[in-house]
Amino acid sequence: MAITAEIxxxxxxxxxxxxxxxxxxxxxxxxxxxxxxxAITLDPGYGNTGACESAITFLDGERGILRYRGYPIEQxxxxxxxxxxxxxxxxxxxxxxxxxxxxxxxxxxNRALPAHVERLLAALPQQTHPMAMLSSAVVTLSAAYGEGDxxxxxLPANQLRLLAQLPTLAxxxxxxxxxxDFVPPDANRGYAANFLHMMFAGTAKATDDAAIAxxxxxxxxxxxxxxxxxxxxxxxxxxxSQADYFASIASGVCALWGPLHGGANQAVIEMLDEVxxxxxxxxxxxxxxxxxxxxxxxxxxxxxxxxxxxxxxKIIKVQADLVLGKLGQDDAQLDLAKGLExxxxxxxxxxxxxxxxNVDFYSGIIYRAMGFPQEMFTxxxxxxxxxxxxxxxxxxxxxKARIGRPRQIYTGKxxxxxxxxxDR
Length: 424
Ligand code: ACO
Prior knowledge:
- It is globular, with a radius of gyration of 23 Å.
- It starts with a strand and ends in a 26-residue tail after the last helix.
- The protein is mainly α.
- The protein has 19 helices and nine strands.
- The relative contact order is 0.12.
- The longest helix has 22 residues, at 377-398.
- Strands 5-6-7 form a three-stranded antiparallel β-sheet. Strands 1-2 form a two-stranded antiparallel ribbon. A two-stranded antiparallel sheet has the order 3-4.
- It has three domains: 4-67, Single Sheet (Rubrerythrin, domain 2), CATH 2.20.28; 73-257, Citrate Synthase, domain 1, CATH 1.10.580.10; 264-370, CATH 1.10.230.10.
- 50% of the residues lie in helices and 7% in strands.
- Residues 45, 229, 260-262, 264, 289, 297-304, 353, 355, 358-360 line the site of acetyl coenzyme *A.
- The site of acetyl coenzyme *A (ACO) has 20 residues, from loops.
């Protein structure tokens, strides 16, 4: 039976068209609402607003489902490589062997940064947050590449370049913050292994363990897309003004930075450190999180969409055990996180509000074990999320590409006359 929707605003009744997605999601198309009734919808936080139709990622928060282009995340994380997943998100299908070989070769050949980037990073104060450095550097890449020229290995040239250069940029940012010399990319290493090499070569954190590079690659896959989250919506919105590709991605980096979004992975570690300062008492943290007005949240817990479990968190929890075991590291922090998860999941406050660990709860523990400082965690998220941002930017621009421009309900003063300075 066809679904219909009807709305009455005052005396005006309006029948609204309904859009049904391929997974039976229902959207009421309110496009005619303002013209026909004078009213708009009000949805702060956009919890009930579909900003677009999209064929990239399907997410069902109630059933804990995440699929890229139809493929369940559980089937991609492991057998597929990050570059395969990037191609899948960008092109809509998995690459065949020739396409993947061309992509891998092109990625290796395009890792070097334009000369101005090193000068730009060197000009910024050493204590600049890595996410500020990253967004600044990304937005200036158009200075070297302009609008881009044709395709490389089947991808728009600038999109291939950024895919190849984001890890180089991240490693340069890290080494600059540590006062270390930059390490050039190594074309004999794959995507994640080369990144770890550029980050840690010549330091005590250097490792050639293939399992660690594989774990890094898998973490990138888990972060690769998540439909209309804050940073992706930002990329689409900025792109809708026809801002250039690098500017749109830089805006996504900025949106990701906040602790309620990608910055949560850093905030989780800071929170666990605070629990340690309180004698490792997880009940203290649970109590604080429940306290209205304490402004303390269990970081890495809760999600706007997942209300049962976050499938990425399940995979990451297993990885945390593997990586820490492999690196032979003290897993006191992992045990603390597991204890905190257990205490929260047994607590009515979290049960009633359907708050579960999200992707960030365990990722920070793995990153720290690998040797990344906390300030770099969100940069790692950005490397992973780049294919998703790019796929959404492409999808938006391939469509009718109307500029994104929400309305508002004004609640300020009514019209009043200007008062001269002497009379105020
Ligand atoms: N700790 C304690 N209470 C929480 C938490 C939390 N982590 N998350 C939500 N709540 C409570 C809220 O206080 C609210 O309680 P109330 O109904 O009594 O007022 C209720 O649960 C609903 O929370 P909202 O803030 O309305 O949920 P929203 O969907 O707006 O926020 C968000 C989602 C931002 C992820 C939130 O759960 C949060 O702040 N979590 C911690 C930060 C975090 O981990 N962010 C990463 C998200 S995943 C990602 O972006 C990659």
